[in-house]
Structure formats: C-alpha cells, structure tokens
Write a structure and sequence with these properties.
about 90 residues; alpha+beta; two-stranded antiparallel ribbon
C-alpha cells in the first residue's frame, strides 16, 4: 500500500522530517519505505516536495487528528493521504 501526502514542504529536509513524523504517528513498522517527490510550480502554486510511504499492510488505525483521503475523497483538510496498492518507485 502506498500512502501519499503533501504538506507543501519547501525543502527536502522538511519533507524528510514529515516522513518520519507521519511514520511515527501511524505506528508504521520498520519495513516501511519513504520517498520524496519534487512537485514543480503549477498555476498559482509554488514548487515543493511531497512524500510517500510504502507499507506492507493496510493502515487502518489513523489517529483522530489526521485528515486522510482514500482515492479522491477527503475526510478533513489538514493532512492528505492517498492509499492505493502499488510498487514504490523512488
């Protein structure tokens, strides 16, 4: 399963910190794989770094203060996560 999230991190260091924070908050096992992804500037947006985590098991216990998305459906707006089976390409 791939968890994708984008908090608009401006630097690689910010994005890597976010990866560790999310992995810890979700209690992910040590075999989770984290990747960073450069997102170029779009109309009205700034370039930034998004993140993804590949995990071996589905994440079913999401903390109450974490917003999540399954496909295009968002539960809350503070944190976006897309869950879909895939092979990570970093």
């Amino acid at each position: 399963m791939i968890l994708g999230f984008d908090a608009g991190s401006r630097t690689l260091q910010e994005a890597e910190h976010l990866l560790h924070t999310v992995a810890q908050a979700l209690g992910l096992p040590g075999d989770a794989i984290g990747c960073t992804h450069f997102v170029p500037a779009s109309a009205g947006g700034d370039p930034h770094v998004a993140c993804s985590l590949a995990v071996s098991e589905p994440v079913t216990d999401v903390p109450a203060d974490v917003s999540w998305v399954l496909g295009e459906r968002r539960a809350r707006r503070t944190f976006a996560s897309i869950q879909r089976p895939a092979t990570p390409r970093c």
